[in-house]
Amino acid sequence: MPSTNIMMKDIKEIIIPEEVIQNRIKELGEEISNSYDPEDEVIMVCILRGAVIFAADLARHINLPVTIDFMDVSSYGQGTSSSGVVRIIKDLEENIENKHVLIVEDIIDTGLTLKHVVDMLKTREPASIKIVTLLDKPERRVEKQVEVDFNGFEVPDKFVVGYGLDYAEKYRNLPFIGVLKEELYS
Ligand code: XMP
Ligand code: MG
Predict the structure, then answer these.
(1) Which residue is catalytic, options 109, 119, 149, 157?
(2) Which stretches are annotated as coiled coil (predicted)?
């Protein structure tokens, strides 16, 4: 992306460039493909909306006949801090009983959102549940019971945007992960 992109003026620094993200996604796709039996019925459960761009790229590096479904949960409003409240806005269309669920997340921060999603999906008796996240902010983890199977990158405790992640619904279409200038959200 040229530096003349009109959103660049809001970005303080790029912390993960586009090529680095794309190379890591290829590796994750291979790791994920090798972790399943080719006969397994795998459903990618993409958590809306942040994980959409990651899931789309990742799916094309998974060498298995996966299906893709979406769930929309919300723990954040328009701001940058967790409300602690997780709402289900849109449920899955597919029945996941006896299927292998791969939850695709954009970022794990406190871990509360993911814990809630995993607990709910477990009640539907899938054959297995694995979790892949593009980003992990381990410093902020509150919920330690949820184990991530595949992790793209660890990021510092800064509010990040781009590659699916937003601030007030903007910046999702930046191809890199960056930190927003503080004056924009203070
Ligand atoms: P928890 O705290 O439940 O939060 O693990 C996970 C969800 O919070 C959002 N989140 C962020 N979104 N930049 C964002 O654009 C961030 O730095 C950030 N940290 C957390 C995100 O939606 C994630 O699914
Ligand atoms: Mg999210």
Answers:
(1) 109
(2) none
- Nearest ligand to the CA atom of 78: 1
Helices in the chain by DSSP H: which ranges? 18-35, 52-59, 112-122
Long-range contacts, 25-31 (Cβ 8 Å, 24+) = 25/54, 25/57, 25/58, 25/61, 25/152, 26/61, 28/58, 28/61, 28/132, 28/150, 28/152, 29/58, 29/60, 29/61, 29/62, 29/63, 30/61, 30/63, 31/150
**What global pTM score does this model have?**
0.93
CATH number at residue 138: 3.40.50.2020
Q: How far is the CA of 111 from the centre of ligand 2 (A)?
A: 11
Determine whether 166 is an active site residue.
Answer: no
Residue 65, domain extent: 20-158
ipTM surpasses 0.90:
yes
Of the bound ligands, which one is closest to the alpha carbon of residue 76? 1
Domain assignment present for residue 173? The answer is no
pLDDT tens column, 26-59:
999 999 999 999 999 999 999 999 999 999 999 9
